Amino acid sequence: MFGFSKNSPEKAPASEAPTLAEATNTAAPASWRHRLKSGLSRTRAQLGGKVKFIFSRGKVDDELLEELEAVLLTSDVGLDATRHLLNQLKARAKRDKLATPEAIQKALSDAMYELLQPLEEALDPASHRPFIIMIAGVNGAGKTTSIGKLAKHFQAQGLSVLLAAGDTFRAAAREQLQTWGERNNVTVIAQQSGDSAAVIFDAIAAAKARGIDIVLADTAGRLPTQLHLMDEIAKVRRVIQKADPSGPHETLLVLDATFGQNTLQQVIAFDKAIKVSGLVLTKLDGTAKGGVVAAIARQCPKPVRFIGVGEGIDDLRPFHARDFVDALFE
Hints:
The structure is a single chain. By secondary structure, this protein is of the alpha/beta class. The protein has one domain (1-9, 32-330): Rossmann fold (3-Layer(aba) Sandwich), CATH 3.40.50.300. It is 50% helix and 13% strand. The chain has 14 helices and nine strands. The protein has a nine-stranded mixed beta sheet, sandwiched between helices.
């Protein structure tokens, strides 16, 4: 039997009391830019802090470029993006005659912004109703938690949301999603066992019948090397298209930032199977590898729809390149 939560999917649901983790994150009022800067502190210490020291000589020479290359690579910026940034810095130094640490750092910051800015592309859920978002990722990347936070994000925009518990392999994943549904006062469609595609198909039908704005469809975590599971998730996408020929309207791949360069292979593999249209980068607060966003921009550019820098329900927000770069270098 399919299970439906008893919560009504109204457009302006009452917010449930926050968990201890959320209360800790939101006890003191702070802007998103402040939380972003705090969340990126490890990457900033690895990248921004060392960059300032390197630039203290106030001259762009071979020694500076060599040291900067090492710092960028250890921040998981990647070889391709590192070479691109170094070439940009050399060109700007020659053109603008950079002669102070501040000017050199600004030149690098501007080059990083120009590299990341094309990844800044907001979702347009108004284009379809229901707007079907299929969510995928490896085990432990933070898919289910991200779905709960996304539900809250869309509700804040006045949109109604329905959750599809498409991870039928793990009872814990289904229970976790149902918990998020209760906290956000959102309907969850689930099945104790069986076919993931069938659950999502039913969820889309329910969303159409109820006039729901957003369907967030969870899927089971899987590794790109598990070819039979990659074939299965491709089937889920085909079933979504049977339920709604225009869907899925967004296919989000959730990436754990602590994986660094390994996330690139995930993007490539999942894109081949399900045509990834956007990324969610989680756990940036737990790693010094935040530079991987630059590697993504050069090697497998996909819009970074959201980034996560904490456990709080409001710590997953749309990606803005300028805010991100400023948090790395300020």
